[in-house]
Amino acid sequence: MALPSEVRRIKGERVNLRRFRLADEPTVWEGRSSAEPMALPTGPGRRSQLRKRLLASGRFVHGSLDLAIESNGRLIGDVQARMGAGQRLPPGVVELGVDLYDPDQRGKGYGAEAVALLTTWLLEHGIAERVQASTAVGNLPMRRVLDKLGFTFEGVMRGFMPVGAGREDFALYGVTKAEWRAPHRVAQSR
Ligand SMILES: CC(C)(COP(=O)(O)OP(=O)(O)OC[C@H]1O[C@@H](n2cnc3c(N)ncnc32)[C@H](O)[C@@H]1OP(=O)(O)O)[C@@H](O)C(=O)NCCC(=O)NCCS
User: Fold this and answer.
1) Which site among 27, 90, 96, 110 is 20 to 30 Å from 16 CA-CA?
2) How far apart are CA 15 and CA 32, in angstroms?
3) pLDDT value of residue 39
4) Is 148 close to ligand 1, i.e. is its CB under 6 Å away?
5) Of all protein residues, whose CA lies closest to atom 24 belonging to ligand 1?
6) Contact 173, 134 (CB under 8 A)
């Protein structure tokens, strides 16, 4: 498996993925703090930890890669890729997460394009052989994103995620390198 590459910018048609800058911190913090528990069951975490993650953005650090989603030059959300033994994933398997901070920015195709761009980049750079994502069974927008990009629904992980006082069932989706038909061209990825 090739060593994970560094990302500066991945250009799409309507969104770009780019490294975070320290100036992004207040927007990311506010976005993560206001996320619904279903979208971010672990909560926003510590702010000092967030700063470290922003500084490490663009590289896999401890098996985790964070990138900003930008639309019309504005930071609107983030995508994450997780891999490796530290994330309890077999070699070649990468797990994605995505969050658009402002509900007004949702439902416009940005989330799907961001997931497509990152999936293409991971598969084309030999980092992933399989890309997977899971979400609460009731998170219909996320499930629709994965469906429309051609991820396969592989089943329900019952009682998977602690949320509040209970545990949520999570739907698991995956796509292999052989199956992936990139819906968006990655114009520039280094
Ligand atoms: C999930 C998320 C990233 C999707 O991004 P997005 O830009 O809104 O997604 P898109 O616009 O590409 O697609 C959303 C799809 O869901 C559909 N949808 C929206 N609300 C829906 C609902 N209540 N029921 C069914 N489908 C719904 C939309 O119609 C659209 O499908 P279409 O393109 O066939 O019309 C975004 O909504 C988000 O950030 N949500 C909060 C964070 C979150 O839940 N992240 C995932 C955690 S695993």
Assistant:
1) 90
2) 20
3) 81
4) yes
5) 140
6) yes
